[in-house]
Design brief:
Shape: globular
CATH superfamily of the largest domain: Nucleotide cyclase, GGDEF domain
Distance between the termini: 24 Å
Number of helices: 9
Strand content: 35-45%
CATH topology of the largest domain: Alpha-Beta Plaits
CATH architecture of the largest domain: 2-Layer Sandwich
Radius of gyration: 20 Å
Number of strands: 17
Largest sheet: 8 strands, mixed
């Protein structure tokens, strides 16, 4: 193992065992303020929960976009509205209002604003870590384990079941994979038709998520291939870019039905995780120089 990888492995944060605990927003772990709004965050070990308070006149594109530097909000929001009404417009033009007593999901790529004269209050479980943070606060380049997932034989399945059934299957697949990503504190950065790209700040959490994905959809008669690679990633406009992202995609392309493949870099970081791997030899990854060791995660 190289000295750099040894240092990264030593710094790795292992998953925390769930425990009985409670916290209140009267003493938040972090408070982020911006014009006409505030977000208070409490951390239950590795799980962040946020309280959103937006005043009348608050508009994401006016009051938060200057901080994030993105054209639209690139976070996925899942929460519960306590009071007020929020208007949402997706990048594709789809609009919706979300009001008191409603549970909501807002995918990445949207604008939002408070409707009317009543402040909007909500509690969220998926965007607490990064919402309203600047690129400097998040870090222009971050070390991440990148996960690529893909449905094996999606075209053949579409032809077999037809358009209507496929849309239903894909919706169920997306819902379950997002649950796995959220459970292991991943960040969804792209949906590729029948697959996902997600970032994790822990190689162990990424591998555990990858191991659960195929099982999560097997009763739908779907099977996935998943690839992992760890490296520095540049976040631009909510999208992950860089050589490490390409490497992760190439690793995933080598996987077969139900397989999770990891690069040698990620494998080194998983020493001591308790996960078992099979050596798959060295492979030339398209567009990248040199043969690289690949390993398969054993179930």
């Amino acid at each position: 193992m190289t000295p750099a990888l040894h240092e990264l492995q030593s710094a790795r944060r292992m998953p925390v065992v769930p425990r009985l605990q409670r916290k209140g927003f009267d003493s938040p772990d972090e408070t982020r303020r911006f014009p006409n709004g505030v977000v208070q965050v409490v951390m239950l070990d590795e799980t962040g929960v946020a309280y959103f308070a937006f005043e009348p006149g608050w508009h994401w594109s006016k009051h938060v976009a200057p901080t994030t530097g993105t054209k639209s909000c690139q976070h996925r929001h899942v929460g519960y509205v306590i009071s007020g009404t929020l208007g949402v417009r997706m990048d594709d033009g789809t609009e919706m209002t979300i009001g008191p007593g409603q549970v909501y999901e807002i995918p990445p790529g949207h604008d939002g604003w408070v409707v009317g004269d009543e402040p909007w209050r909500a509690v969220e479980w998926t965007s607490a870590h990064d919402f309203a943070k600047s690129a400097e606060a998040l870090g222009e380049r971050v070390l991440s384990t990148i996960l690529f997932s893909d449905i094996v034989g999606s075209t053949a399945t579409l032809e077999r079941v037809g358009d209507k059934a496929w849309v239903k299957l894909l919706r169920q697949h997306n819902e379950r994979i997002r649950q796995v990503i959220d459970r292991h504190r991943g960040r969804e950065v792209a949906t590729l038709g029948d697959g996902f790209v997600a970032l994790f700040d822990s190689a162990t959490r990424a591998a555990l998520a990858a191991a659960q994905m195929d099982r999560a959809v097997e009763d739908l008669d779907l099977h996935l291939r998943v690839g992992l690679h760890t490296g520095e990633v540049e976040i631009t406009g909510g999208q992950a870019r860089g050589v490490a992202v390409h490497a992760a995609a190439r690793v995933a392309a080598l996987a077969g039905e139900g397989e999770v493949l990891v690069s040698g870099t990620t494998r080194d970081l998983l020493d001591g995780s308790g996960l078992d791997f099979e050596d798959r030899g060295s492979h030339e990854l398209k567009g990248l120089s040199g043969a690289r060791p690949i390993f398969a995660l054993r179930r």
